[in-house]
Write a structure and sequence with these properties.
By secondary structure, the chain is an alpha/beta fold. Helices cover 30% and strands 28% of the residues. The chain has 9 helices and 15 strands. The strands form 2 sheets. Strands 14-13-12-11-7-10-9-8-15 form a 9-stranded mixed beta sheet. Strands 3-2-1-4-5-6 form a 6-stranded parallel beta sheet, sandwiched between helices. α5 links the parallel β5 and β6. α1 packs across α8. It starts with 6 loop residues before the first strand and ends with a strand.
Length: 338
């Protein structure tokens, strides 16, 4: 497959998610290599190259524009702050690069529509790595097979505690807050598992009085035909994550749904409610998988023309419409149509 070819990646910024998670994942992809890292501070770019052990193969750039002008870069990973996702993604695509952009892909659906300016022969995708993890794919297989009966409800929690005023997640004007940062995961997860789009949402949101960001949100999404997503996300609560698929016969729980460890097995719990303590539930073990590697490999194979990606710009715009509706419901105090 792909005849030994590799996609040459350039990385925009030295963001922590890139250095700690995504770039190491890319480096393990059989059809990927990292050839450039850019920062607005050249010294930081050099430090990142050295930290990743890439001195012999990757160039350091002191501006994003220099990286985008590099003819040796085929694809760009964009983990910049949220307000820079669309401008730099469009610029990269117009410079001839394919782009994997961190979530959320935009500040709003209207801004995400600007991605349609990207040349149609350039692949642009939102980096929801969970969709590439086999534990999510297995959960969907179980639902598709009818073992759950009718899949009626998905329930999720995603939270952490961060009160650092210098952290981008706590800066409202550049897209900080829990809904954009982590609430997007239950939304994309439900869209993936229901294999449908929600019709309307209602939200209860509490905002930090100083940061003005949403620090706690409870959301219900109506997927029609009696199907519901309900989730809580918070940037100022005890760290926790969970997701359950609730059917008329059984339920499935993904034990570590969003930050699955790359080097240890994960598990699904399949429960029919026989015992309320789950002692008789079936536990399915999923082999160790780096979901960032799976994402990079899928993207690389799409760039190489081997297998198209399942999700692109249209999917990213649909995702942003749901987030827009959540904020609209916060403002109106009522259901918001999507």
């Amino acid at each position: 497959m792909a005849d030994g070819r590799k996609v040459r990646w350039g990385i925009l910024s030295t963001a922590k998610i890139g250095l700690d998670k995504v770039i190491p994942g890319i480096l393990k992809s059989a059809h990927s290599e990292v050839v450039a890292i850019a920062s607005r501070d050249l010294a930081r770019a050099h430090t990142a190259v050295a930290h990743l052990g890439l001195r012999s193969q990757a160039r350091a750039y002191g501006s994003y524009e220099e990286l985008l002008a590099d003819p040796n870069v085929d694809a760009v990973y964009n983990p910049l702050p949220n307000h820079l996702h669309v401008p730099l993604t469009v610029a990269a695509a117009k410079a001839g690069k394919h782009v994997l952009c961190e979530k959320p892909i935009a500040m709003s659906a209207a801004e995400a529509e600007q991605l349609r300016q990207c040349p149609p022969d350039r692949i642009v995708a939102e980096a929801f790595m969970v969709r590439y993890h086999p534990q999510w794919q297995r959960a969907r297989e179980i639902a598709r097979a009818g073992e759950l009966g009718e899949l009626r409800a998905i329930r999720a929690v995603f939270s952490y505690h961060n009160v650092d005023p210098h952290n981008v997640r706590n800066m409202a004007d550049i897209g900080g807050g829990g809904i954009m940062d982590i609430g997007c995961y239950p939304v994309v997860g439900a869209r993936f598992l229901f294999e449908a789009e929600p019709r309307r949402v209602v939200a209860l949101v509490d905002r930090d009085p100083n940061f003005k960001t949403d620090r706690l949100a409870s959301v219900i999404a109506d997927f029609g035909y009696g199907r519901q997503l309900s989730f809580i996300c918070s940037t100022q609560m005890v760290p926790h994550q969970s997701i359950e698929l609730m059917g008329t016969k059984k339920r499935v729980e993904i034990i570590i749904p969003f930050n699955a460890p790359p080097d240890t097995p994960t598990a699904l719990l399949v429960d029919d409610g026989t015992t309320l303590d789950t002692s008789l539930s079936r536990r399915e073990i999923i082999r160790p998988v780096d979901q960032y590697t799976e994402q990079a490999e899928a993207f690389a194979l799409a760039v190489l023309g081997e297998k198209p990606l399942a999700w692109g710009i249209d999917d990213a715009i649909l995702q942003m419409r749901v987030l827009d509706a959540i904020f609209a419901s916060e403002t109106s105090g009522a259901w918001a149509e999507i």
